[in-house]
Design goal:
The structure is a homodimer. Chain A is of the alpha+beta class. Chain A has 2 domains: about 200 residues, Alpha-Beta Complex (v583 fold); about 210 residues, Alpha-Beta Complex (Enterococcus faecalis V583 fold), CATH 3.90.1710.10. In chain A, about 40% of the residues lie in helices and about 20% in strands. Chain A is built from 15 helices and 15 strands. In chain A, the strands form 5 sheets. In chain A, strands 5-4-1-6 form a 4-stranded antiparallel beta sheet. In chain A, a hairpin with a 5-residue loop joins strand 12 and strand 13. In chain A, helix 8 runs antiparallel to helix 9. The longest helix of chain A is centred in the middle third of the chain and has 25 residues. Chain A is globular. The two termini of chain A are about 20 Å apart. Chains A and B meet through helix 8 and helix 9 of A and helix 8 and helix 9 of B.
């Protein structure tokens, strides 16, 4: 990578670095993740009317891409702050609406990642490091808010999720007690899921675990049956549990002076941003790349929006593209072939500090997943983190157009290392 | 293999063989498998009081091994035909009890495979070839009848399965309509299950699919919750669906004159038996080998009974040991290492006629599973089919002692080819 030599030399000469990175690795791998509560974002994230969270680094309405605008429009309508898309757009461009990254509240959201006060969210807790992370509930595929759709179908589903799904799951979790989400992750790797675009096994395990606590609820049988059907029919439902579990792992490594470990990779559809353990809350951003992969129906490359979503927290925490070897069937969704999946995982060891003690990849003789991306290693090798991702249509309201493969812009690592060098 | 040369030459010279084997392969791969009914064996298999089905080739009480005796004793008590194990043994040795292989009724049963009239069974149908196959409901692990345990705990569970589990699932299937079990199989191979000793994903998919039809039933919430908990807590529950699905595939290839395809591999704890497509209902048997593998708790090799169960129907139909490459985590259960799992699948292509069009193994670039064991190829290569299996304690009443790897005795292929040669 160009222009990084001086910074790299200074970072590598920092006597704190080795110990700092060792601490980061230890914290990341020791973090736990328990689902403890499900409630509206107003309650768990303190969101006020007119406040919206979104994926990726900070963003203004003016710079927002189509799917991000679509999701914000949809959330405005859902919150009753606008009656029409036009009214929503006008208000979103005005001074009374506030936008902030999910990550700024320790939260994460897939794709547009828009969270508004009335949406119910999962709250996961890491009892080891005392942190929490929230994530929205997954809407399924097709016309969904997170891909930028905002029509009647989206609104009806969001209302049902608020009125039925959220309360039913919340009561089930309360009855069950904390759900050990971290324990799902190694099992997922034994069951062909990489946790970013394949979450089938975790979805089914989560449903299985809550079931006895769902079916005993004193509610209409139709509501109970629909909750079971909705969760079971959405292979991605557990993505929104895996993401905050990954966020908790990475949050554990925040604010370690001298550490070159990447603790956040996130995209808002316009910019790709990263954060390092050694540089606090500072974002290093550059224009997001556009994924390449496989398209739904008649959509093609010209329909795809640049990379979007906080879901790259999975790769940041050693899941997703980093463990493609454990999920070879993923290539039928995101493109590439099985050899690519195996090679990708093997290559990720070149830019990570360690192998995860419990996230093991069976087909690689149970080798631990490549964990803790070292920005120094990225800069020295030129190997970029591999991300599997969904692709949103670039026109607001479209929804999903495909799934594919993408990498961060190299510049973010250059800028991050320069900032780290200044603190060395 | 010794003593088989003449028979082999005659079988290979049979002008019908090539076309017969092509027909067998086509029938096996085109068979469907739908779960259509769940009801007592008295109804679906016409079992009368005192009639018991068991796994493997035909067997008398005198020659029955410990776990088979244990299971039969348990079934006698369950049916109210004996009050004590001693009374059961006495009657089982007498003239009023009749034993027959599950396979003789187109049924299959794991381990001891004992089915008695009051036990509820799955009925699967192959609409393409117009056949049906039944299998018992899976009891879970630990002290269970199929591993030869018969104590109070076993009896209580069997009674609950008869009074609650069976009726609840039966009503759910009736409400749902036919459940496409064949459709689970390719998904299992994408989710790390080989369908013999790993059935986690199919169990969860089955539970997911029936759920909306379970939760709407007008029954006590505790019963509904317990059914959900019981099925979800037993990773092997779907074995008893995969087995009859495999049986239907192989039943489709029965009675094809001249075909050297193996349509049955089954063990009764004493003998290992096979049947060929070209030799009708004739069994070719030899003493069963004893599996080698990993043991539970303080059990060791001296506790293991010889190979037992109809579950080798999975390998016969290209699942189980034949697709270990798709389920590398299985080696932590049955022994061996990941390289062994990959090599085993590759080796099984040497003794099979084709590659299954829909059962694809992702990690082998979606190559179809090795399907349709050719007894000629077994004899010519000396490669024996690889079976993954549970291990029963050899003393009646013990239960499971481990899981491991086993092959058929070579002699059964020699004898089968001799019989086929006589018909050439």
């Amino acid at each position: 990578m160009e222009g990084v030599e001086d910074a790299l030399a200074r970072v590598m000469a920092d006597p704190r670095r080795e110990e700092a990175n060792r601490t980061a690795l230890e914290r990341i791998t020791s973090a736990e993740a328990e689902l403890v509560r499900i409630a509206p974002a107003s309650e768990l994230l303190g969101l006020k009317p007119g406040e919206f969270l979104h994926s990726g680094p900070p963003l203004t309405w003016e710079r927002a891409s189509g799917p991000m605008r679509g999701a914000l429009i949809g959330a405005m309508i859902f919150e009753g702050l606008a009656a029409t898309p036009e009214e929503a757009e006008e208000k979103l461009a005005g001074p009374d609406i506030s936008l902030a990254p999910c990550h700024s509240r320790g939260a994460v959201g897939p794709m547009a990642g828009v969270i508004s006060p009335s949406m119910w969210v999962f709250e996961l807790r890491d009892p080891v490091h005392g942190t929490t992370s929230c994530c929205s509930l997954n809407e399924g595929l097709g016309k969904v808010l997170r891909y930028g759709a905002f029509n009647e179908e989206v609104q009806t589903r969001l209302a049902w999720m608020r009125d039925v799904l959220g309360p039913v799951l919340a009561e089930a979790v309360e009855s069950h007690g904390p759900v050990d989400v971290k324990a799902y992750l190694p099992q997922m790797l034994q069951m062909g899921d990489e946790g970013h675009n394949r979450n089938r096994s975790a979805t089914l395990m989560f449903l299985r675990d809550l079931l006895p606590h769902i079916v005993r609820q004193d509610r209409p049988a139709d509501d109970i049956a629909e909750v079971c059907r909705f969760v079971g029919a959405n292979d991605h439902f557990a993505l929104n549990l895996v993401m905050p579990a990954c966020k908790l792992a990475m949050a554990a490594a925040k604010d370690i002076p001298g550490s070159s470990v990447v603790v956040t990779m996130a995209r808002n559809g316009t910019d790709f941003g990263i954060q390092l353990a050694g540089t606090g809350d500072e974002w290093f951003t550059a224009p997001a790349n556009t994924p390449e992969g496989l398209f739904l129906g008649s959509y093609g490359p010209e329909d795809a929006n640049p990379d979007i979503g906080d879901s790259a927290i999975t790769e940041t925490a050693g899941m997703g593209g980093f463990v493609m070897a454990a999920a070879p069937a993923i290539v039928r969704l995101v493109g590439g072939d099985v050899a690519f999946a195996l090679t990708t995982t093997r290559t990720m060891y070149e830019i990570t500090l360690g192998e995860h003690p419990t996230l093991q990849i069976p087909v690689l003789d149970f080798r631990g997943a490549p964990i803790a991306i070292d920005a120094v290693a990225v800069a020295r090798t030129g190997v970029l983190p591999q991300i599997n991702t969904g692709m949103a249509g670039k026109v607001a309201g479209t929804g999903q157009v495909g799934a594919g493969l993408v990498t961060p812009p190299a510049q973010v690592f250059v800028d991050a290392l320069k900032a780290l060098a200044e603190r060395a």
